[in-house]
Amino acid sequence: MSKAIRMTRTGGPEVMEYVDVEVGAPAPGEATVRHEAIGVNFIDVYFRTGLYPQPLPAGLGMEGAGVVEAVGEGVTEVKVGDRVAYAGRPNGSYAQVRNMPSAQLLVLPDKIDFETGAAMMLQGLTVQYLLHRTVALKAGDTVLFHAAAGGVGLIACQWAKVMGVNLIGTVGSDEKAALAIENGAAHVINYNKENFTERVREITGGQGVSVVYDSIGKDTFFGSLDCLAPLGTMVSFGNASGPVPPFSLSELQSRGSLFVTRPTLMSYAAKREDLEAMAQSLFGVVSSGAVKVPVMQRYNLADVGQAHIDLESRKTTGSSILLP
């Protein structure tokens, strides 16, 4: 038996129940992983509330790190005893033990501990594809990154600096502004004190940025479009404030032939060879120390409700993990 979080209905944090579940032997193509740490991400809130639908009853959580205890028939990616980490579906990482498709598992380098592994996979792989593949940034580019003091944001600040990219970050407090600067942001805008669109134009001498990375959604989308230079790209990769409302494509034309994309990690990592290449890129910058993954909040698995409350109220910085 394993303790795990299950939900039979969507709603607030109270729908997450701490229960016993039978894990069973891994099926062909699966491996049994005993978690040492579990990542908590805003996408988990989307599934909990029903913004992203899934069949019920269901588990939650898309990220974890631990040790392989058993493998099913045909598994070649990992073996018993391997230290592994993963990010991706199916949901269910909020558990002490689970069976996971082995094609999603990646062997964790010895230099990276379990807490870092659990905290970095979803967020770090997201930053990898955002900065290297969604738009292939180069040294000297200037971009805007919302929620720069969050888990994804702090990794992006550091990685952008390594690449020579000028990252302008938005945050909601002076404390978060200091944190983003400490992690490599070139400029930081406190959106509770300044109009971020006007400030971006000031910073860029009226030119605008080449890319906006927006995980906030409804509250920032149109202001973000106004930050872009002609032919710029709007990367909408989250909905923390709610989904972006429908809009006319003329909004893109009138601002200078803009591009808009709504990427997901699942699409970018759908092929095993792409997942492995992205992971090696992430493991490299983390193992070298060039990018650090700050675990700022730790919760017991049974206290996952409080983790979601803190995440939704924007009280968290950096990464949050559950300890099983």
UniProtKB/TrEMBL annotation:
Claim: Cell division is one of the keywords in the record: no
Enoyl reductase (ER) domain residues: 11-322
GO annotations of cellular component type: cytosol
Enzyme class: oxidoreductase
UniProt xrefs under InterPro entries: ADH-like_C, ADH-like_N, ER, GroES-like_sf, NAD(P)-bd_dom_sf, QOR-like, Quin_OxRdtase/zeta-crystal_CS
Annotated transmembrane regions: none
Keyword Ribosomal protein listed: no
PROSITE patterns to which the protein is assigned, alphabetical: QOR_ZETA_CRYSTAL
This enzyme's EC code(s): 1.6.5.5
Record's keyword terms, sorted: NADP, Oxidoreductase
GO molecular function: mRNA 3'-UTR AU-rich region binding; NADPH binding; quinone reductase (NADPH) activity; zinc ion binding
NCBIfam families hit by this protein: PRK10754.1
Protein name, entry field: NADPH:quinone reductase
Protein source organism: Pseudoduganella aquatica
